[in-house]
Amino acid sequence: MKHRFRSRSFFALGKLLAILGPLLLIFYTFLYNPPCNEPSSDMLSPIVVKLSNSTETVNYPTNISHIKFVLVGCTKTWLTRRPYTEAWWRPNQTRGNIFMDSPPPKEFLPWPKTSPPFQLNTDATKLPVYPKLANPIEARIFRSVLDSFSLGDNQGVRWFVMADDDTVFFIDNLVQVLAKYDHTKQYYVGMHSESVISNFLFAFDMAYGGAGYALSYSLVEQLAPLMNDCLERYPFMHTSDHLTSSCLFDLGVALTLERGIHQIDLLGDISGMISAHPQVPIVTLHHFDNIDPIFPNRNRTEAVKHLMKAAEIDQSRLAQQTICYEKPMNWSVSVSWGYSVHIYESIIPRSILKKPLETFKPWKNGPPPLYMFNTRLLTNDPCHTPHVFFMEHIRKLQGNSVVLTTYRRKAPRRQQPCFVPGNYSADNILRVRVFSNATVRKEAGKIDCCNVLHMAGMNVMNIKLRNCRKGEVIA
Fold it and tell me: What H or E segment, with its residue span, contains residue 404?
């Protein structure tokens, strides 16, 4: 009897396990691998997620929350530079800190929410190498990335972006640019100076921190513990940017260039450069204290805020040059969307118009070449001197599907018309209106075309931006 009972018990237990086994497996699967029914707001750079000793790659795009800004300033200049930073900083969206050399004085307090949170740099003077440094002040700036990383609030950070407090960012474009790269790999993204002599004095393959550069999280994770060792290795270097690039080169990481990052090692009127911006997203502009206001009849702060009005509506087109022609009048038209319009009283090929007018001066004098790009010299020839218009206002039309930007003449050109048969004077044009698509972002690297809608005798010119037709020659 006992033997028969024991056999039946084992048989019943086996049946029970056979039934419960698959159920337990299903339960385990759903418990540790819950289904994800809600779409994520992140999507582009890959993240590696480990599950049960297996590795699964899931793609989430890079967005603003994945970028941590490491801004460097000082209390002496913060009052004048604060408006530049606040023009682009987005409270409750952007993350990061402004690192200062000393605690904020009473007149700075309470610290405004419109500014990046204040943070004091750690004391670099206690480092053994400090007395040996050729330029000790730069050690604080160089170690700001380490200070930011050491704060520990790095959850979800994919990129550390370094810049000065007189740099203006165009955040949507920054996100678009960084989303191209895999943040789990080691990337050092930036741009060299516009000035040949600046690059000659420091390095042609170095990113300039004033303009801003981005370091992927995995790179900062490796670099941070080695930064003090790097100071020991390069005590003779004079700038934090040169220190950073040298340390990264020692790790085998080269600079990845992004042409929309602008150091602006130039002086005076940089409108010629902005008006011929290449077909890449504009990411930063630097050195506002050293250049003329970028819009006429405004101070520097007002000019920056005015540019940001266009940036708030469409950063994908901002400043990028579009060229078209009004053949009946023999006019060439260059549109820097959201910034300026130039009208020439002759037909000039795009290959020439895309070269910036040299309205600016070099950062330092030296033998030619002075700039890292080709330029056109200013001239008194009325056939090659433009009528210049700057953005006056911007608004959306037709149920927010169209953007209208209006550009007003800067001043009378005060030159004779271009005396070429078939040419007409553009002196009577007072405003230019440009219509663009508000629902489609401009693709990086893609050249737009445009149609000029103008009636002879009218003092307003209308221009419609459009996609170029296949095989269309812009000349």
Answer: strand 402-409
